[in-house]
Amino acid sequence: MNPLAAELNAMLTEYNPHVLEMLSGLGKNMYFPKGILTQSAEAKEKAHKFNATIGIATENGGPMFLGCIQDRLSAFDPKDIYPYAPPAGKPELRSLWREKQLRENPSQAGKHFSNPIVTNALTHGLSIVADLFVDKGDHLVLPDMLWGNYNLTFGVCSGAEIKKHETFNEAGGYNVEAFRRTLRKSAEEKKKVIVLLNFPNNPSGYTPTVAEGDAIVEAIRETAESGCNVVAVTDDAYFGLFYEDTLKESLFGKLANLHPRILAIKLDGATKEEFVWGFRTGFITFADGNSHENSPVMTALEKKTMGIIRARISNCPHPSQTFVIEALRSPDFLRQKEEKLHTMKGRALKTKEVLNSGNYLKAWDYYPFNSGYFMCLRLKTVDAEKLRIHLLDRYGVGTISTTKTDLRIAFSCIAESDIQELFDIIYRGVQDIS
Ligand SMILES: Cc1ncc(COP(=O)(O)O)c(C=O)c1O
């Protein structure tokens, strides 16, 4: 093992040995090298005469660039676009995002957590978690309505065994009891379990109530109490898009500093929240279980995260970090976001109104939804994939079949005035093939 990795592991052993136990083999071996990046960072501060360190080209005291690109980006200073961004992300972006997290998640106030580290959006954050914490055969607890890409990231790439529980109970609420049962069973078999909480959920569009959220946190605490380490990850991709009376903050705040055997990891980002999907800007934030400031644990996790970023993608795109900084600092940011939230909420509520008309009862009912981009129909009479293909071929309407019975509708992409027609067409499609 590299001495730098051993040094980080020793910090974990001293300040929270459970976090060391949670790391995968790769996570234990990971470190941030004192290589080119560290030497370049030192030179950036001290090399006032010539800086012949890092692999970019310079000219006239700044980065070299092509006019045909800069002409289109002239609002931005070349130094904020072309050079590599720091491996953990632009410091200003990290602190602005931390402030935003605190503003929007009152339960994070007074908690100790790391500075957010910039990722290449949430998918990358998920793969960092998989690399650092998942070994072959580790259990990952998820609801059965889940974003399919988790299977690739955790199952195929890292060999996790995915343990699914029913998403909803008979009463149409979140099935916390099934979650607790699944968690308990894993805790009986394993010394560590990874829990992935995704609210608003893809594909169902559900966010738990405050009481359900508390019960989820309590089930995790009980598991830790029983002696099992829990890596509790919140995938907050659709954060903020809450339309009804639900939890309106990430469960990360309540999981942070809760129990020494719980490591809370928050994955969030600008992609869905700020409608900049292609920018690929997200964050990973850690909070260990100690109630006091535990900075050596945060430092060790930050260094290991920087190491895995360096190993896999070197660093994240610079221009989009600059664009997101501009947005977060803009006096129009909050107002414009509020306007878009209003539009999305209008679509969600219209979808509910149309579905509640009673016109489609023979064809489907629908799963509870109150947030995010999506909702799911539960078809009663036809196969979802067959219907999907029919809708595409006959009507030019695109939907996603997620199981034999479930059809996911992204109301986020349908104007409010078109929602009635969309469901009428889907209903006609069901009648065609029944
Ligand atoms: C639940 C969930 N998490 C993460 C992602 C990926 O987000 P990003 O584009 O930021 O990688 C998606 C995208 O569809 C998603 O639905």
Please name the defining characteristics of this protein:
Aspartate Aminotransferase, domain 2; 434 residues; Aspartate Aminotransferase, domain 1; alpha/beta; single chain; 14% strand
Detailed description of the structure:
This protein is of the alpha/beta class. The protein folds into 2 domains: 3-32 and 87-329, Aspartate Aminotransferase, domain 2 (3-Layer(aba) Sandwich), CATH 3.40.640; 334-433, Aspartate Aminotransferase, domain 1 (Alpha-Beta Complex), CATH 3.90.1150. The protein has 17 helices and 13 strands. Strands 3-9-8-7-6-4-5 form a 7-stranded mixed β-sheet, sandwiched between helices. A 4-stranded antiparallel β-sheet has the order 10-11-13-12, with helices on one face. It starts with a helix and ends with a helix. The site of pyridoxal-5'-phosphate has 12 residues, from helix 7. Pyridoxal-5'-phosphate binds next to helix 7.
